[in-house]
């Protein structure tokens, strides 16, 4: 399968700290790829290189190449805003804007120039449906997004990300702040979305990776130890460190 | 604490008495209460004095003609006590100050919060706060000696004493208040909200304008109202630079007089106690007090009304 994201010899430094070491990784289109590994091994860092959210952290230095859809995203004529429109992100803590449910979803499309009320209405409905939230909120679109439960807020954030029609969705431990039922809903949602989107998710929960992903990447100390199809990685890992980790001997 | 000494099976007995009652526990709340009381008593005292003297004044001049009269000539006959020219002067100065300070103050706050590297903010913010501590008499002479001559190059027929120069410099004076308080309010907006917007492809400016500013609106608008009431009460700048011509005008190039600068003028002269001229000080003072009081209520209402939870 053609890789939509191709990472080559990627090194990232936070000032003097070497956070990503010589990462080579291909991420296939329209699949769920899970990043697993102990805390502090660089999963979030790598995820943030994909939509250049690391640009905002001062004194960050990047070497190597990240190509998305064939384009070098750290190249000269890349507009970060245009990149982030194609590569959406959902964060660990639900972070709805202190605005109405409607305005949360419409925020992104409005940024990118959609003004017509009927277009926006359509996008809001479609995005909320995609995020399996429409039935719960369709009568309360004018209510503050903060009146929703944590799980609903996170699905709202997913809907908000989908509303700008990205190709890729990055999720950084998007369920770790949620209760088991909300977590399950979001996992089901991810299953639905993978036919349309390329999803890259960070999780510290191996069972989640096993349940929802097609490809799993195991990180340790800023290095990619092993990347394989999820079935293979969890049943017959090729690296001893992967085996130690998935069998619960550390991390 | 000797476990073996307790009776087998019976739970351990515990008491929760304090070894000694501390004197400080009793005295501190009383001291703090007295401090709070002191400020309340002071306020009541101010209101009492203002009211007492004003009542004498309003026995001779009806409240209605005071509030609606358009000529203020308390010393020179024919004497007239219409406060509108002073009120108009105050509002003209305040209006100019706010028009000057709000956009610039807000731009400063946005720059400091969203654009400036930490190093720049570390320098600029303290400097702004020092600016807020400059004695207003210094600002007054700055208006008279620097701003007025400069403005006269643009408006050649403008007089030495004028509302524009004083208003702009009052604006300069309240600018640090707006930028500093707005910046604090904007800084309190969680980073996660900004990240959410950046991740959707927003630019810095879009994040500042559509996410941070609305979320910080209650603090920002409060800073405007505070600056407004600070500008209304400003005395020295207008006394030095705006002249002493009570007239009802919207023309900022003319000399005017504000409520505060009138009070200064009369207090400095030798108006005898107990006269109606003396009473004007308190009548105008009371008017000023009521306006500032209403503004403070407005500020609190604004802070509540615009609060966006995050
Ligand atoms: N903004 C930052 N500045 C400096 N060091 C950071 C920053 N973010 C993360 N790190 C460091 O980089 C390493 C990887 O962090 P991260 O990518 O967050 O790990 P993970 O998501 O796998 O838990 C950690 O050692 C962390 O301390
Ligand atoms: Mg992380």
From TrEMBL, chain A:
It holds the Pfam family ABC_tran. One of its GO terms (cellular component) is membrane. It comes from the Bacteria. CDD domains: ABC_PstB_phosphate_transporter. GO terms for biological process: phosphate ion transmembrane transport. Coiled coil: none annotated. GO terms for molecular function: ATP binding; ATP hydrolysis activity; phosphate transmembrane transporter activity. The keyword Transport applies. Keywords: ATP-binding, Nucleotide-binding, Transport. Residues 5-246 form the ABC transporter domain. InterPro entries: AAA+_ATPase (IPR003593), ABC_transporter-like_ATP-bd (IPR003439), ABC_transporter-like_CS (IPR017871), P-loop_NTPase (IPR027417), PstB-like (IPR005670). This is Phosphate ABC transporter, ATPase subunit.
From TrEMBL, chain B:
One of its GO terms (cellular component) is plasma membrane. Its main location: membrane. InterPro entries: MetI-like, MetI-like_sf, Phosphate_PstC. GO terms for molecular function: phosphate transmembrane transporter activity. GO terms for biological process: phosphate ion transport. The keyword Lyase does not apply. It comes from the Bacteria. Coiled coil: none annotated. Belongs to the binding-protein-dependent transport system permease family. CysTW subfamily. PANTHER family: PHOSPHATE TRANSPORT SYSTEM PERMEASE, PHOSPHATE TRANSPORT SYSTEM PERMEASE PROTEIN. This is Phosphate transport system permease protein. It comes from Paenibacillus lactis 154.
């Amino acid at each position: 399968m053609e890789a939509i994201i191709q990472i080559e010899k990627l090194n990232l430094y936070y000032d003097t700290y070497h956070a990503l070491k010589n990462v080579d990784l291909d991420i296939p289109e329209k699949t769920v790829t899970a990043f697993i590994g102990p805390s502090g091994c660089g999963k979030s860092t790598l995820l943030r290189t994909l939509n250049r959210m690391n640009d905002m952290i001062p004194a960050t230095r990047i070497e190597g190449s990240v190509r998305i859809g064939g384009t070098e995203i750290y190249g000269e004529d890349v507009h970060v805003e245009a990149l982030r429109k194609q590569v959406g992100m959902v964060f660990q803590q639900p972070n709805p804007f202190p605005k109405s449910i409607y305005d949360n979803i419409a925020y992104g499309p409005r940024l990118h120039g959609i003004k017509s009320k009927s277009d926006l209405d359509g996008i809001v409905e479609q995005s909320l449906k995609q995020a399996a939230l429409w039935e719960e909120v369709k009568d309360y679109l004018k209510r503050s997004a903060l009146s929703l439960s944590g799980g609903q807020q996170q699905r709202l954030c997913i809907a908000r990300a989908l509303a700008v029609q990205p190709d890729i969705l990055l999720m950084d431990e998007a369920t770790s702040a949620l209760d088991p039922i909300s977590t399950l809903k979001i996992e089901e949602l991810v299953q639905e979305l993978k036919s349309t989107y390329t999803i890259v998710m960070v999780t510290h929960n191996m069972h989640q990776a096993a349940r929802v992903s097609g490809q799993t990447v195991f990180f340790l100390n800023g290095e990619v130890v092993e990347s394989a199809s999820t079935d293979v990685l969890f049943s017959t890992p090729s690296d001893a460190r992967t085996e130690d980790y998935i069998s619960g001997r550390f991390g | 604490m000797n476990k073996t000494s307790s009776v087998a099976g019976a739970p351990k007995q515990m008491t929760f008495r304090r070894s000694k009652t501390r004197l400080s526990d009793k005295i501190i709340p009383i001291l703090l209460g007295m401090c709070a009381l002191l400020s309340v008593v002071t306020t009541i005292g101010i209101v009492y004095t203002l009211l007492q003297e004003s009542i004498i004044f309003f026995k001779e001049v009806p409240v209605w003609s005071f509030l609606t009269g358009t000529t203020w000539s308390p010393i020179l006959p024919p004497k007239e006590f219409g406060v509108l020219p002073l009120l108009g002067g105050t509002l003209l100065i305040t209006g100019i100050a706010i028009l000057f300070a709000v956009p610039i103050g807000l731009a400063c706050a946005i720059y400091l919060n969203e654009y400036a590297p930490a190093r720049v903010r570390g320098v600029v913010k303290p400097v702004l706060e020092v600016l807020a501590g400059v004695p207003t008499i210094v600002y007054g002479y700055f208006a008279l000696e620097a701003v007025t001559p400069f403005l006269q190059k643009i408006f050649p027929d403008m007089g030495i004493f004028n509302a524009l120069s004083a208003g702009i410099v009052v604006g300069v004076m309240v600018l640090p208040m707006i930028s500093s308080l707005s910046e604090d309010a904007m800084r309190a907006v969680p980073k996660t909200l900004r990240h959410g917007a950046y991740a959707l492809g927003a630019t810095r400016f879009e994040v500042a304008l559509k996410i941070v500013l609305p979320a910080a609106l209650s603090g920002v608008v409060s800073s405007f109202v505070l600056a407004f009431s600070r500008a209304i009460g400003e005395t020295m700048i207008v006394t030095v630079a705006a002249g002493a011509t009570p007239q009802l005008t919207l023309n900022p190039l003319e000399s005017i007089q504000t409520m505060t600068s009138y009070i200064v003028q009369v207090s400095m002269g030798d108006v005898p106690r107990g006269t109606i001229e003396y009473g004007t000080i308190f009548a105008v003072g009371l008017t000023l007090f009521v306006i500032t009081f209403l503004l403070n209520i407005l500020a609190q209402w604004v802070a509540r009304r615009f609060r966006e939870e995050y």
